[in-house]
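Loading example: each entry is read as two labelled lines plus one structure line.
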Amino acid sequence: MKSYSIYISGVGGQGIIKTSTVMGEAAMKTGLPVVMSEVHGMAQRGGSVSTELKIGDNYSPIIELGSADLLISFEPVEALRAVPKISKETYIILNTNPIYPFNLSESGESYPDVQNVLTELNNKAKQVYALDADKIARESGHSLSMNMVMLGAATAVEGFPIEKETILNSMKANLPGKSLEINLKAFNTGFNFVKSS
Amino acid sequence: MIDFLCVKVVIMNLKEVLTAEENQKLFLLGNEAAVRGALEAGVGLASTYPGTPSSEIGDVFSKLAEDAGIYFEFSTNEKVALEVAASAAASGVRSFTFMKHVGVNVASDSLMSAVYTGVEGGMVILSADDPSMFSSQNEQDNRHYARLANMPMVEPSNPEEIRQLMGFSYELSEQFKLPVLMRTTTRVSHMRGVVETGKLVPGKTKGFFKRDPKRFVPVPATAMIMHKNLVRKMEELRKLSNSYELNKIYRRNGKVGIVTSGGAFNYVMDAVQGNNLNVDVFKVTLTYPFPDELLLEFIKDLDAVIVVEEVDPIMEKEVLSILGKNGIKMAVHGKLDQSLPLIYEYTPNIVMDMLETVLNQEIKKNQVLNSDLSIPERPPTLCPGCPHRSVYYTVKDAVNSLELNDVIYPTDIGCYTLGITSPYDAADYLLSMGSSIGTSCGFSKATNQNVVCFIGDSTFFHAGIPPLINAVHNKDRFVLVILDNRTTAMTGGQPHPGLSVDGMGWEAPEVSIDAIVEATGVKYLRKINPMNIKKSKEIFMEALEFDGVAVVISQHPCMLTKGRRSSKAELAVKQEKCDACAVCLEKLACTAIYKDEEGKVSIDPKLCNGCNVCVQVCPERAIGVKK
């Protein structure tokens, strides 16, 4: 198969590694070769973090610049930081809920208007699916199901190489009973958002 | 903020490292694969001091060791960890010790002798190097240690290879009665990939130490013989390296060949296969002793060699010396001719750009886009509710009240090193674990400035005690703040000797920091709850005026510790009282407090941990519990 590359970016503590692992495991269960790279350690204390996932015959999990098929960004500015990894062919799932860097007043930098971020991403990529995943998560029953919203949305993107059922099975097998319903609701809301866009 | 679904997923995975039967596929992190490989090799004892990028190995052992029927410990520091593993191996038990690259510096004193005395049961030392310094103070290349100590070294490229090489390394170790060094890098330790499990072998946890001082006690007379034996062993190992199957040549009808190892091999193969290049590749896996005869075989029909390795030009120099010794004239490209950088980790693009230049051939690359909007930096920072933040705030406040200038703040290794950022500016000098106290001794002697140094609880146990003894005995004058947050926080919350639990998850005696400090003869010792700003400030002012070594132990659990998160109180800014003076924003700088577009100061309820420090800091008393 043609290699499929997913770049996932966000802020330390948003559960990015865990979400990526679910996708990777589902790929493995589908019988696809898969490699992934994670950043642990100091960056996880509220800094920028990313994971890279390559499905197909690859040795390295690190995505060549300009070649991510899918960018899943848990935060608007972190999507901008990932622009060198994307191309005109890239689909983007964007959580529009900003997390402001703590040192803005100190550094004198400013946080861009989210609408401008969207315009910039739309100019660069093939298609951007922008959603307030935090809000959807809260409405689904728990703010911590935000990553399931993002996962659901990603699963619905054209060309995503893993079947929805496989992702769901992997989720279900691992879900504690009490949060299953919330997580499924979050996942499906994300999934339907992209399908109906 | 940890996702409740996926924590469960990971826990299930971790159990699978032990419960998975033979020939199963698991999606494992390199560090998890190391544990599986060790369990398949029948490891009986494992020891470590946590350090990124090796930390998850210990986390997994800590969860599985009891069920696996083996022994695991978080040792006080890496030197102790290596000694625990070395003596177990000397007793015939297969042992595994693992640490980050700079941890090997701490362990090195005993490592240099452990190769002389050798082992009986197999012993593997894993060094997780950190090119590009994702979580480290330097990016030293620990492949030098294999040469310095004279020990065989393997370099895996992916999780499956880590698993396989664990088994090979134990056999090699027992065959030559030498510890084996496994060198990984961040991108290999933190790479996740499909691992095919082998059979688990129950580890032998008890051996028998047969006394043999001629073998195990290096004094001049015996060490002379030990060194001679070591050199002989390494010569035999060189022969083995030349016939080892994972030192593998991939022929692609090339006139140019690439010698590579570890994570760099992955970039090479993706570039070579992706562009269908006629370039031969020599993957060196047992990289020391370097397989010299295989290299000669590899270059037989080549016109030029490229060496692709991270970080120092180590194999490149091996290649040059082998060519020189054999009178072969051939172009060698790598770091020494600036084809590749001498610093930082490689990337696919660095390797592709190099190939394009050296091969003078177009390599297929995608266009690189850049954001037209400027992107604010997002450095890592202390968590909301972190007790370190209030300590920094209070110390600065005390220093200002006493009108002290030019205070020096030596710091140490842990989350609190993040005190380097403004507005705290509480990190002025750092060398290594424990250096906060040792360097304070020097500043105390060599300057007339006030010195306030910071060290965490785990770091204090690791390397803080000898320099504290030094400070007392040599009559230094400084304030030592021990930030006791009841965990090893930066690496993910591992236990340490000050806690009532050990690496096995068993109940353990708590070693008292207070008692250790008292025993050194320190005359000023106070304990504070850092979340009480007023009291803490009084103590810090007293400590700053004390003529001698003043120790303040700041005790408050890390906010990430299980069950610590959020007192139920939800804090909010009372807008009618707030005059936007921004003391909370600019001096405390808690990440949960922000100024919105209209200039209104607010608290983000998602981030706030309800620690109450901002309530005490606010001069207008404008922060309180949300009604």
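Residues 4-97+115-195 of chain A form a domain with the Pyruvate-ferredoxin Oxidoreductase; domain 3 fold (CATH 3.40.920.10).
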